[in-house]
Structure formats: C-alpha cells, structure tokens
Amino acid sequence: MSGMLSGIKVVSFTHFLQGPSASQLLADLGADVVKVEPHGGAFERSWTGPDKFIEGYSPFFALANRNVRSIVADLKNPEGVAVVRSLVLEADVLIESFRPGTLDKLGLGYEQLAAENPRLVFASLSGYGSDGPYRDRPGQDVLVQALSGLAMATGRGGADPTPVGACVVDQHAAVLGAFGILAALHGRERTGRGGLVESNLLNAALDLQIEPLAYALNGFSSSRSTSGVSSPFYNAPYGVFATSDGYLCISLTSLEALERVFGDAWFATLDPGSRYEERDAINERIAAHMHGRSTAGWSEHFTANKMWFAPVNGYDEVIVDPQVLHNDSFDAFEHETAGTIRTLKHPIMYDGERPGIRTAPPELGQHTREVLTALGVEGPDAEALFASGAVG
Questions:
Q1: Where in this chain does the entry annotate a coiled-coil region (predicted)?
Q2: Residues 6+ apart with CB under 8 A from 324
C-alpha cells in the first residue's frame, strides 16, 4: 500500500498548503519526495492560522509534510541552483508553487528542464494559472472563494457573503494537482515522455461548484434563501435548523414526508412544483416545528422515518464521532520538543487500509547531506557547499 509509488522521485518547491499537500499525497504512497527549502525554512514552519504553536512547533507544517525529506538550498546562489538542478535531472516529478515564471528565471523552468530530462513530469500549482490577466495576483484560498462565486453563494439571503469555514479550495487544488501528476506518470508509461501539469486555485474553486455553475451557464438565475437554505439552487428543505438544544441539518425531503414527520397538513396544501419558489415559507414552517424537540428526540424520530438528516457537529464532536474513528481518520507522531502531534491521515483506503506516517515531518535541512551523497557530492566538495551557504 505505502509502496505504490516506490521508485518515483519527486522534487518539491512548495509552500503554504496547496503544494505541500499535493506532495504529501504522493509521499504517503511511497514516492521519495525531497522538499527544497531556503535557509530560513519554508513559510509553513513559522506560521499557523490562529498564530498558535505547540511548544514552538507549527501544526500547519505538521499537517502537510509527513513522509518527505528536507534539504536546504539557496536558490540565489548559483552553486545552490546547480545542486538542485542535478537533483531534478534525476527526478520523475517536479512540483512547484512559486509565482508563475519564478523557476524560469533560475533556469529551472519546464522547457529548460524537459530538454534535458524529457521524462520529467513538471507540476505547476498556482493561484490563477501560468498566464492571463490575474497571473501576478496573490493566490490565496479565501480570495479565490470570493472571486469564484463560492462566498457569494453561501449564507442567508440579505446577509453578507460567507466564505467556507475551511481552506477547501487549497485542498481541492492539491488533490487535483496530485491527480494530474499521476495521470501524467501513467501516460509516460506509454509515450516515454513526461509533460507539464498545471493546477490552480481558481480552476479548483470552479470545479467545487460544478453543479451550480451548470445551472448558471444554462440560464438559471439563483438567489440565496432568506431563511437560511445553504444553497441558492436547491428546493427546501436543504439546510440547518435549530432544535430546542442544538442543530440538525435536513436535506431533500418530499412534501409528503414533511407532512408525515411533522404531522402538519399545511405541507399538503403546496404544489410540489412550487418547492423552490416557496422554499422560505417551507423552511420557516419546519423551523417552527424543530424548536419543539431536542436534537436527540428529532434524530430518533427522523431515523425511524428514514429522513435525510445529520447532526451539526463542532470539531470537538467530529474528532470523537464513531464513523470518523471507525474510518481510522487520525494519526500521530512524536516530536522532540512538542511531544505528540496528531494529524489527519491520507484520505483514501487501499485494500482496506489508509497509509500512515512512515517518517515525521522533517527538521529543516535534515536530509541535505544524505541527498548530496546520493548525487555523488561528498567530502571536501560537500563541505565547500555548506561553507558557502549554497546548501544547509
């Protein structure tokens, strides 16, 4: 399972989340991923969203750098670039998440490297794409949620647009990047040539909205429901309702079922074809009923009536949820100063198992000397590189 990509060599010039997460997906499956970092370390080593660290250790770094190796190379030093170039010319995959054109300036662009290593799969992960009017804009998850329509589609009608409460665009772009790399590697088996794979946050955000955009592209004009339906394009009910002591989410239920479950003949007075136009009234009627019982009471009642529903969990509930635990969703490793660090596991099962942590996220430059030795750079030559700061 963990050796599916054994023998595949990956050089990763990545930072933030999209690139490291894509690299980690490959590393989980056995690819030898070498992360190239500057002397100060990758950005994610010294940053977390809430500015919270575990004894000085970043959980943001921990979440997307397991099973990889780290080298330090100064890409402003020609000797550092030469080391990295030698590494890439022996690699199967290069992943980079710099701004478009950065590696070209260093002589490490796709055309330059493919001329010498035609089997190389070069994966460029960016904010908006390698060209176009937004090429040089900062690409970041919440900005792309706004630009792509995702934030505008979320929240109550009349309220401010609402970004999703997680970096869903970053992570989806990472998965698409890894998917593209695997497709290119498979194609290389037939053609003998690698190729250029490009994934970007904007395309990923649009892909997340494949259904609503299909409606919009074909003339359907939607609006958010003032009663809080969680989507502008679904019939009621489709959203979150308050109980007497919490919340439940109800989805895609017929008027007949609503009449039966709530014992309310009002639902039978509606034309089934008007469920979209009447969604606010339907949701308000449901909300009035929902206040009358506890979450547990409604859950038992809905289960008996085969309703589509789910509890609205916070993260405290999620991490102890029986199905989440049954799916073996979490892993942990020991850090010298921070102690036990818990993380999510690789999301896919293979033959009934999920790949785990073979090696903890590396310390900065932990494998530089090891990688140099594999390149045949040892003794005085290696020491000279360290002394000059070309590597670290």
A1: none
A2: 318
Q: Please give the CATH topology (third level) of the domain spanning 9-208+350-388.
A: Rossmann fold (3.40.50)
- Which pLDDT tens digit goes with each residue over 10-56? 999 999 999 999 999 999 999 999 999 999 999 999 999 999 999 99
Question: Could you read off the pLDDT of 146-160 as tens digits, one per residue?
Answer: 999 999 988 888 888
SS3 330: strand
Out of 74, 92, 141, 170, pick the active-site residue: 170
Low-confidence residues of the chain: pLDDT under 70: 1-2, 228-230
C-alpha distances out from residue 305 to 244, 258, 266, 290, 292, Å = 20, 10, 19, 15, 18
170 is catalytic: yes
**C-alpha dihedral sign at 224, 228, 231, 234:** negative
Strands (E), 159-288: 195-200, 238-242, 247-251
pTM for this prediction: 0.93
What residues are paired with 9 via a beta bridge?
A: 32
Strand bridging mode 121-126 / 93-96? parallel
Tokens of 113: 């490297």
